[in-house]
Structure formats: C-alpha cells, structure tokens
Model the fold of this input.
Amino acid sequence: MSSDPTPAVPQSRRRVTAEIWIVLGLSLGQSAVYAVVNIVARLTADTALADQTTQLNPTRSVRPYLDLTYQLLGIAFALVPVALALYLLSARGRSVRDALGIDGSRPGRDVGWGFALAAAVGIPGLAFYVLGRAIGITVEVQASGLDAYWWTVPVLILAALKNAILEEVIVVGYLRERLTDLGWGRWQFIATSSLLRGSYHLYQGIGPAIGNVAMGVLFSWFYTSRWGRHRVGPLIVAHALLDVVAFVGYAALPAEWRDALGI
Done:
C-alpha cells in the first residue's frame, strides 16, 4: 500500500472566491466596511475632519486587571482569522512555509529587510501625517488610550505584533496565493492589496488612507519581487516596528510634546 499523500483536489473559481470573501469578511474586509461608514459619518459631521480624533488601543475598563484581560482577549481573537487563512492554505496541499516563506531559515535577512522597509515608510509617513493634519484631511490619531500600568508597554507591543501578523498574512500573503489561484496577475494583486489596506484605514481620515495605499504598493511589490521572494517575515517585522514606535512612543511622550508635534 502506498504511503504517498493524496494529491490536493483542485478548487473551483467560485469556491476560491467565496473563501476569499469569507476570510476578509471575518477580518480586514469587515474593518474596511466599517471604516468607509466611519469616514462618511466624519465628513458629514458638523465638526471639521481636522478637529476630530480617533483613539487606537483604548482602555476597556477602569479596573486595571480587567482592562488587561480585555486587551489580551482582543489581541488573541483578532488573530483567529489568520489561523483560518493559514489552515485554508494548508488544505491545498502546500505547507505554510512554501506558501508564505514562514520557515525561520533567514532570520537575519528578514529582519534586515524589515528595518529597511520600516525606515522607507516611517519617516515619510510621519511627514505625511503632519501634512494631512495641516491641510485638514487627517483626524488627530491618539495611538494609545491606555493608562500607565506595568503591563501597558508589553500590551502595546503585543498589539503591534497582532496588527503586523493580521495585516501582512491576510492582505499580502494569503491574498496573493488566492488571487493567483484565480489567475490574477502581479499588478492586479498589488492594486487590490494596496487599495484594501488603504480602505480599512479610512477611519483615520483621507490622508492616512492614501499613505497606507502607498505603503501597500511598496509592501506587495516587495513581496513579489526577487528580494522579497514571497516571504511575509520582512513585512511583519517592518509593520511591527512601525506600530511599536507609534504606540509606545505616543504613550511615552509627555502631553505637551504631543501637542507641540500635533500628534
């Protein structure tokens, strides 16, 4: 009796399309819909967009350990769609290592590229945020609403990692694999991934949405390039670095410094 594994059954376009909508509907596609509704509400409000605020990582309870519990639960459950996406990819008969380059074989290079991508996005991104605030197309983004506890910084770091894993695995790695199954080309994927990334950031205003589209173009192009080699590791490192600096830096800066910088 042969011990060879049974070949994966080819999946129809309709099934792959349905799968994509389900995964996105449970994760960042859902966020995009809410963000579109949010920006419409902001633009039609009596208050000007530049005078509005949005808060990331808000506190969930006035009781510290209950707040910590809520924060950790939110981070854990947000990663469930990632587990689903990886499971569905593995069902095709390809390992996650082959599909997304998650194998830990090149940690030094992945980290190096991650720092380079973070630098390429971070400095222009901050400048674009300040410009957006100046011309009135960006709301004031408060990167952390958590009070100062012993667990605040670790939770903010975990939140940054959660964002990085969720977005890069689904919007880049998973989406590239599944759109390829549908016969989509490289630039169709880059456009779709980038516009999706921008759409779920619309709640921060038009400026951050445009900035995230640009970030999406860079990340998805790099992922499909001969340097990225279809590895999500560098993208996760870069995204996590950007969010750690934003979240922890915001929490660490004195209020008067934040006011002076307009953040």
Observations:
- The CA atoms of residues 256 and 262 lie 10 Å apart.
- The longest strand covers residues 53-55.
